[in-house]
Amino acid sequence: MVDTDKVIRLSDYVQLERAQKNANGSRFAYDAAKKVVTNVREYFAAHRDGRTYGVRFPLYSFSNSPDGVKVGDNAGLTVVPSTNYRAGRDDYAGLSAFRVFDANVAVNDDGTPVVKAIKGLAGNYANDGSNGDVFVITTVGFYKFEFDTNYLTIWYSDTQYDGYSPMPGALLPDGTLRPCMAYAKYPLSNFGGKVASVSGQKLTAMSEQGSVAVPGSKGKGYSGKTSADTFYTQVMYLLKYATKDIERYLGGDFNGSGQVNVSKAESNVTRVLAKTSDAASIDLGSYISVGTGTDRGDVKTGEAAAYRKVISKTTVDSATTAINVSGAAFTTATTMHVTQMPYLTGSTDGVLGIDGIPREDVSKTHQPVKLQGIELFDGLYETEGDVILKNVKDSDTSGHTEVWKVFDTTKASGTAITADYTHVGDYPAVTDKTDNQWQWQTDFVEKHGFLLPTGVGATSTSGLTDAFIINPISAPGLHELPRGGDLWGGSHCGLFSADGRADLSGAWWYYGGRLSVLGRTHA
Questions:
Q1: Angle CA 9–10–11, to nearest 5
Q2: pLDDT class for 523, splitting at 50, 70, 90?
Q3: Based on C-alpha coordinates, what's the Rg of the chain?
Q4: Which of 102, 122, 173, 184 could share a disulfide with 30, CB 3.0–4.6 Å?
């Protein structure tokens, strides 16, 4: 299929020619005195190649298959995910539209990113928080959705051709383009008393109200996760893998919820003894807590040992297996439990590529994934702070849920839908039989940079392969939008999953988040 609108805008062409002739854009330039990269915009402009990458999916009414066909410059490109032990293949890694760099990034109050260091190329990059937050930076991209009777075709390019829109979050509040796109590399954690994107930390709970508070504590250019962050990972996966099912090629920690009893007590050890049949449900490389509690949000769950990495498992006798963990020695009792916890941030740092999973000897759906260098699905949902769901009970047997989005997160509200919010559209309506029940999504449309489901009735292997749950009949009012999934959610989790049941303050252990620098944007 040919992209018939591949006509570059004159202003973009002039800018592209100027950048390509400018030696200042050939490589990143670092100002050691200011400790910033000074030519990020010029670098990405100079490396644009103008190619257009497409993927064509059947509409559910024509075929319920989740699989598409790569078209345009996307045809023939291949991805084989990597692991900690094996580098895969990624034909996209060196292409301008897809190339990503790990970077330490800050953001000005107006939303302009400030690149302080780039891994291996500029400045003193660090992923542990010592040089600030870690983001993945990439060129500003442009996209187009084309619908016909039976198909949807998604196009993506590093160049703005006629009919292409800047990626969500690409425009600053004044309507100008950001010098680059920056996406938090890690799920939300706490570092130095502030929300952060750094490696090696426990995940932090985040509600919609908590996300709204981020600009006040971190700076006006920051926010919690936005729908723009979600959109990028969705589109990248669709283009690179030509399927809507992320569990097929990557995975996500959607089933790593093992919890077993301690079978024999010990003192001053770095292991836990459990029945061999029970120990099989505790994954190598995962993180466990040991204690009398059973809820992951209860401190008693980790009173003996908290968030210890499972290094190995060894046979003790015919009925007993030792689960060996990292860290200092501790004491166990038979009243305690071994509880598999969400992963720490940075659990995909060892993956030998920009896409992949850590381990080959653990199920894909028991571990986090890396997509375009971004760590996803560590075991918690991620709440979108620029979106409010409005549950409307239409009758005792019917209801609908509206999606409202704010484009400048400094104007976001944790209590109301104000004049600053735009009505994106509605989730498919529910009845008293489907209210508060998982619904498998068939198709989506793009509205204001948000992929809105348009129908239900699919399965875990058809349509979008993911499900949403809303409760407008049983719980009318304002709700938040956690995305992705948690470590016990199973197959309804994924790139298109949404759990709309919690109110705007919902922030128990399984509702996490992500830092964003895309919250201040133009409608």
A1: 95
A2: confident
A3: 23
A4: 122
- Spatial neighbors of 79 by CB under 8 A, at least 6 apart, are 88, 89, 90, 91, 92, 240, 241, 249, 355
List, in sequence order, every residue forming a beta bridge with 203; answer none if it has no partner: 189
Condensed to tens digits (0 to 9), the pLDDT of residues 402-435 reads: 999 999 999 999 999 999 999 999 999 999 999 9
Exposure string over 174-187, b if 16+ CB within 10 A, otherwise e? eeebbbbbbbbbbb
Label residue 453 left, alpha or beta by phi (over 0 means left) and psi (-120 to 50 means alpha). beta
As given in the structure block, the two tokens for residue 43 are 């670098």
Contact 503, 389 (CB under 8 A): no
Task: Please name the residue that has the structure tokens 């299929």.
Answer: 1
Burial class (CB in 10 A: 0-12, 13-18, 19+), 264: middle
**C-alpha distances in Å from residue 154, one per residue of 61, 151, 237, 457, 506:** 18, 10, 12, 23, 34
Task: Give the pTM.
Answer: 0.95
Number of CB atoms found within 10 A of residue 490's CB: 16
Secondary structure element (H or E) that encloses residue 12, with its range: helix 10-21
Cβ atoms of residues 422 and 448 within 8 Å: yes
